[in-house]
Write a structure and sequence with these properties.
single chain; about 625 residues; alpha/beta; Rossmann fold; 3 domains; 17 helices; binds xanthosine-5'-monophosphate
């Protein structure tokens, strides 16, 4: 809701994944902030505008962007901060030069910054930041100076001399840039805002908005049993009363082991009323049969949710006066390409065309649509939901349907990947070698074992430079069994993704894969495949669910079979807060070995891969 009476900051949204997150962080620092499409920005129209932030975006800076912004910024003298794409655009506007780097940077990057400068004031000179970019500023405009640099990005930050213009190639707004909030606070101080802003209580705001959106309609809600849907249910009950709220749990057949029954038991025990259950496994499996493409699977699952819902509504005879309530949170919207310039990373199940049509007709209420996961959990606590429920790992609406990677048996796979020699070269150069020596032989002439790697013939979704990528993972292993420590593994995985264009993920295998061969087999979503995934998922989760640092741990089944005909699985435990960025959980290798052993004991299951990819460049889910 716009509050023009307040001194505020505007974020110009160029379609970056984090534009809304920037505003959220600024508000968290006690300054009112709005998000605007760049076209709507009218300098001078708003005397209370105290500063401007240009967001990231999926595109390269073009002449059109320059033409759009030149007149708008011409007389603007208040502080301006460009982030990622915004950093490049500002440099271009003021006469600098850009280049497309051979080396791209996604995820954690060390920088050296100057703590005597305004944005880095009193911050550590060496620190880690989170990046996601292909282009970079190659030449600074006159009167600008670099204030930070990274190993492969000389101008990681700049400031203009004599005027408050700043650029950061990295993302201060994400939680994985540890000093990012301090940088934003430094920028806000330069904006000299005199009236601090105290946000109204999130609970009151969300309940009030929901009541207003509901009008006098009945509310109908799909309850998956996850945090988002249960918090949404509580909000609805608080907004319009339990009698006007009906909910439906759909057992899609894509749930985890025993999950639907557990959810229903839990809801009954917690005293939730008016909850129906629909056992719809046959419909979902029938419609998913023979479909391999991840976006197509997502579209089908989303459409079926709407179909099941429509039938239920007819059976309940609720008439026309009802609205569908969804537990959509902000990352679902942005990743589905939900803002004007944003790229579509993946279509979340609550953003399929059938739902979009209902949204346009005003039939959908989404109480949490502006919140991030950590905020939803906070709201849930304020609403009195039990902590055990709020602490559950997130589970996506399309469930295991998007964790069972399929192959249609037809899409050709390159016999050799162009990047394989480069992968070999990086590994043979000693990167990540446990001995930490770059040489390949010891003094006695015996070769030390170095990591080996192979690009796998499956693909998964990534988010790179604010765009969707759909590329291969590389698997690495050490034939001698000795592994580098975690910092080294992280650096290596990061380097491989940045330098190899064929891949967007790196996974680790504890087994020696030198003589292993993986066959890519035709595979679709079937009961049998799901049952195997459910067993592996249940087994792995029972061993790691107690680890508090793990925020979510998808288990993915791959259509890859080893020489014994056993299927490969991936474990992807991530550390995150809001799902916008994620780090890899550094598991103890003994525990990983134990887990791999357990997976092998499941009939039909073989090697276990451990995902070493941060977000970006990989998304949390593989599809
Ligand atoms: P990604 O894979 O995009 O996921 O990094 C971010 C978070 O969103 C969850 N996710 C979904 N949740 N419907 C949902 O309700 C979906 O279609 C969907 N796809 C991904 C994912 O599990 C992670 O927590």
């Amino acid at each position: 809701m716009l509050r023009p009476d307040l001194e505020h900051i505007a974020v110009l949204d160029f379609g970056g994944q984090y534009a809304h997150l920037i505003a959220n962080r600024v508000r968290g620092l006690g300054v009112y902030c709005t998000v605007l499409p760049p076209e709507n920005f009218r300098p001078g129209a708003d005397p209370r505008l105290a500063g401007l932030i240009l967001s990231g975006g999926p595109q390269s800076v073009s002449a059109d962007h320059v033409a759009l912004m030149q007149p708008r910024l011409a007389g603007f003298t208040k502080p301006i901060l460009g982030i990622c794409f915004g950093h490049q655009l500002l440099a271009k506007l003021f006469g600098g030069g850009l280049a497309r780097g051979r080396e791209r940077q996604y995820g954690p990057t060390p920088i050296r910054c100057d703590p005597r400068t305004r944005l880095f004031h009193e911050l550590p000179a060496e620190q880690l930041v989170w990046m996601s970019h292909g282009d970079h500023v190659a030449q600074l405009p006159d009167g600008f100076r670099a204030t930070a640099s990274a190993p492969t990005c000389a101008i990681a930050a700049y400031e203009a001399e004599g005027r408050p213009v700043f650029g950061l190639q990295f993302h201060p707004e994400v939680v994985h840039t540890p000093h990012g909030s301090a940088m934003l606070r430094n920028f806000l101080e330069l904006c000299a805002i005199r009236t601090p802003w105290i946000p109204e209580s999130m609970k009151q705001r969300v309940i009030g908005q929901t009541r207003q959106a509901a009008g006098d309609a009945m509310l109908f809600l799909l309850v998956s049993g996850g945090v988002d849907s249960l918090v949404t249910l509580q909000v609805c009950i608080a907004a319009v009363g339990a009698d006007r709220v009906r909910s439906l749990h759909v057992d899609t057949g894509l749930m985890r082991l025993g999950e639907s029954d557990d959810i229903l038991k839990f809801l009954a025990a917690e005293g939730f009323r008016n909850i129906e259950i629909e056992r719809a496994e046959p419909v979902f499996l029938r419609e998913l049969a023979g479909v391999a493409d991840p976006e197509q699977k997502r579209a089908i699952i989303g459409r079926l949710f709407v179909e099941v819902l429509r039938k239920k509504l007819q059976a309940l005879n609720l008439g026309d006066n009802w609205k569908l309530v969804q537990g959509t949170i902000y990352p679902d919207t942005i990743e589905s390409g939900g803002t004007p310039n944003a790229a579509k990373i993946k279509t979340h199940h609550n953003r399929v065309p059938e739902i979009q049509a209902m949204i346009e007709r005003g039939l959908v209420v989404e109480p949490l649509r502006e919140l991030y996961k950590d905020e939803v959990r906070r709201l849930g606590r304020e609403l009195g939901l039990p902590q055990a429920l709020l602490d559950r790992h997130p589970f996506p609406g399309p469930g295991l349907g998007i964790r069972l990677l399929c192959h249609d048996g037809q899409t050709p796979v390159p016999p050799e990947f162009a990047d394989q020699p480069r992968l070999d070269h990086i590994l043979q150069s000693g990167a990540g070698t446990p001995s930490s020596r770059k040489s390949k032989s010891t003094r006695r002439g015996r070769r030390v074992s170095i990591l080996q790697g192979r690009i796998l013939p499956v693909k998964s979704v990534g988010v790179q430079g604010d765009e969707r990528s759909y590329r291969h993972p590389a698997v690495i292993w050490n034939p001698a069994g000795k592994l580098p420590d975690w910092p080294m593994l992280n650096t290596l995985a990061n380097r491989l993704v940045n330098e190899l264009a064929d891949i967007n993920r790196v996974v680790l295998c504890l087994d020696d894969l030198t003589r292993e061969h993986f066959e890519l087999r035709k595979m679709f979503v079937t009961r049998e495949g799901l049952d195997r995934l459910r067993r592996v998922d249940d087994l792995l989760h029972s061993c790691i669910a107690h680890i508090p640092e793990i925020w979510q741990a998808p288990v993915i089944s791959l259509p890859l079979f080893d020489r014994q005909g056993n299927q490969a699985f991936v474990l992807r435990p991530v550390c995150s807060k809001d799902a916008m960025t994620a780090d890899v959980y550094p598991i103890a290798f003994d525990l990983l070995a134990e887990l791999a052993e357990k997976v092998r004991a499941v009939p039909g299951a073989g090697h276990l891969f451990y995902d070493l990819t941060t977000k970006p460049p990989g998304t949390i889910e593989w599809e």
